[in-house]
Amino acid sequence: MEKLKLLLLAFFIGFSINSWAQNTQVSGVVLDEQGMPLPAANVVENGTKNGVGTDSDGKFKISLSNKNAVLVISFVGFVEQRVKVDGSKTNYTIKLASAATGLEQVVVVGYGKGSRKNLTTSVSSVKADQLNNGVISDVGQLLQGKVAGLNVSTSGDPTKNSSVVLRGASTLNSSQGPFYVVDGIPGVDISIIAPEDIVTVDVLKDAAATAIYGNRAANGVIMVTTKRGSKDKTQISYSNYFGIEEVSNQIDMMDSNQLRAFTTKNNLNFTPQNDKGANTDWQKEILRDGGAVSSSHNLSMSGGGEHGNYFASVTSIKKEGVLLGNEFSRVIAHLAVEQYAIDDKVKFGLNVTNSNSVYNNVPQRNVVLLQSISHLPVSPVRNPDGSYFENFIQTGYFNPVAMINHGDDDTKTNNFVGSFTTEVKLPFGFSYNLNLSYQQLNSLHGEFYDSYYQKYNSANFYNNPDPPFTRSLVNFGVNGSALRNSYQNTNTIIESFLNWDKTFGNHKIKAVIGYSWQEDVLGDGFQATNTNFPVDDVSYNNLALGNYGSVSGYRVDFGDSRAYQKKRLISEFARLNYNYKDKYLLQGSIRRDGGSVFGSNNQWGYFPSVGGAWRIEKEGFMKNQKIFTDLKLRASWGETGNSSGFNAYTAQFISGSLGTFYYNGQQTGAYGPNQAANPDLNWEKTATANIGVDFTILKGIVSGSVDVYNKKTTDMIYNYAVNPVLVPVGSIVANGGNMSNKGVEVALSSTPIKTEKFSWTTNLNYSHNKNEITKLTNPYFIGGDSIRRVQPDGGGQTGSTLQIFKEGKPLGQFFTLKYEGKNAAGVSQYRAKDGSLTTNPAIGVDYHYAGSAQPKFLMGWDNNFTYKKFDLNIFFRGVFGNEIFNATRADLFRPSTAMTNNIHADAANESPNDLNAYKYSTRFIEDGSYIRLDNMTLGYDFGKVGKYIKKIRIYETINNVFTITKYSGIDPEVEQGGTAPGVDSNNFYPKTRTFLFGLNVIF
Length: 1003
Fold this sequence. Notes:
There is one protein chain. The chain is mostly beta strands. The protein folds into 2 domains: 24-95, Immunoglobulin-like (Sandwich), CATH 2.60.40; 241-812 and 853-882 and 928-999, TonB-dependent receptor, beta-barrel domain (Maltoporin, Chain A). It has 8 helices and 50 strands. Strand 26 (565-580) and strand 27 form a beta hairpin. The longest helix has 21 residues, at 2-22. The two termini are 56 Å apart. It is found in: Cell outer membrane.
């Protein structure tokens, strides 16, 4: 009888289990905030790998293994939602909130995260799907035009990174770019991040947001968060693109018929050595045939279990430049692992990235670009016997195609970043973090100029450096010249901090206190050069085959004697956030930094900040209004510093070689001081006051922010000329100058149209910044309140400068001759210092202020359209109110030299008798404003295809579709970073138009 009872009990239990198993299928639909279906959303049973994707109507069905299951619903760009299954309910309608505009959006800040609704500081966030599309290899290009106040300028050269300036230049040093923090690791070389691995980019703008990074944050901080795995789903993704780039514009030079007509008209004659009856387009000859090809492949895998997750990816990028022999390739491997232990109270994280890059540069690139526009079209590329055409009798006349094909300039880098993190959850709302990171950059560089280059030495071969540097002579030895160097940079960081997150009724407190230790070793390596090789084929690969000893006067170049540096930074920091009823918000932080690069009397600095916000919509008097669904007023002040742009020895006394002197019948080496010590060298300090308003109106249809800021830099570091009686060297690196940036930023987001089949989302950002050098003096400085600079040294322009550092003027202030047309004799005349007209102006004396390279306004306008499964993105950006000094055009306006060098087509009506026509002056300062249709992308989403493919999307992108501008140069997007912005000086790498085809697949 007992056995029968047990059998019956087992039967009923089994029947009940079977009945539940047969009835665990639930269904539903996933919608966005407007009630529109979300196809390909992920619906996963929590704690398992059991999951499905929604269909084209946002619907799903899933069989669950547990009657108490929790559904995890996620979709890119939306806040993840968890729904507990109710046994009495089998159909669910689930609405996801947009992460891009929702107040609950999580923003990454220094040493923590926070909800956007409770921020007291100015932070802009860009999600992965909002980043720029195209053939892109650095984060600067991804953000171009996307963030108010962020000025990004790019080159057509694939081996050159973008210049990024946030809220105007803060220093006269060359280092003006923001400080990058990747996954919590400070100071990461941003080039190692694959664009496809990025989740969000948070741009910390005001000093209250950045002060937690102390002396490294004067130029702003950009936080990059990369992808992580999920314990709720396993996913394999593959994306690739294939692109073709073509030159979008060239300088309008005379062809052989035009130039021959001009010389005949003006009684000029080509020399027989140059005139071979050709019609050569030299700009075209240095370009690749058929355009440049680019490609990218990214394969990633992610997943996890109940107590851990992983993400791994491999990215391969290859990008050809449009110039011959110019290309760039990179392979990036990335692994991120998180593992929980001790009831998930301890989390270990391992994050490893390795990037291997190869840069094939154009040998003597800027000289090649200069020669391609100045070479006569009547000269051929090659002689009838196949050898390169050259006229070595003419000074400074080199065949640019021969220069490319007889030289090598290559760099290989391997960049490794690894971090190990530990987070421990402690009682009473405390948590402890320990972060260890190590970065190592190895570079191997080689240059070789074969025996062909020996022919150029007698012609006074000058280089053509980027402004503000001035050209210098280059000697290529005999029978080939080779250079080889190998350097290693390492960066070791230990950061330890304690967080406290606690709620007491209506009061919420978040606090962090921590310690940071960092040591950098730079330039650990060597360099050597050699000449006089037996053959050319060896290139730079075997310096031992050279024989410099038999070349009179040749000296081996062992590189910079100060290449090796060791720097140390030790810091303590703290931050406190107080929140009352989610209505009144306060934040304060302080960081104490000690740096070895500064003077012995000033190695420690303090960087405080304070901020507050009032969420007005939470007040009782706002309950009955129907305009605002969110309204927040915030204000902040903070101070940051700058410790970059100068080396570890800047404040120290250094002796070195001072040439030779004649003593006792022979030349003897002279040694003595070549750098003065400055024990009082202090931090540059940048203080920013910011007032902002965040708002959402019309029931969430429109949201935005407005910021007004005042940024002041004091104690700017600069290498001042001083009285040699006081400082024997004649110069000293010291604090002395001040700079101001004042501006307004506006960002708006809206979804004007949202229907079942069609939607339109638009984002507009606008910014205005006024830059001014407010002080440029030092007790030792003997140069007054101004410094003339930027000397391109074009033909006949010796001593002529283009810009000036001047109190009361902005960085990039043009200072030059004022062009006043032509006199009765047809000769160009200029306004003298005393106001009279002259045809013989004095360089540096008869100069006038003539506009600025600083833009008055920046604009970005992003539009996303969807229709059924089609999506279209149209992105415009613009720069307004800046001037460009077109020194390239000036150097091509020399009609008297038309028989030896080509001239601009616009110079056709110039007279060879006007020897002033080409002088650097206001005649060649042009409006640099432009509007560019920067990107158009059309895509189609096939959704789920078959059993294993969750999503397939194909797309086509066109970059640099068209540009509206009055600028007569190749492109108005000239360099905006550095200390010589807005100068177009015979070195402009051609901008390109890209046609790109791409594919994204999720398995």
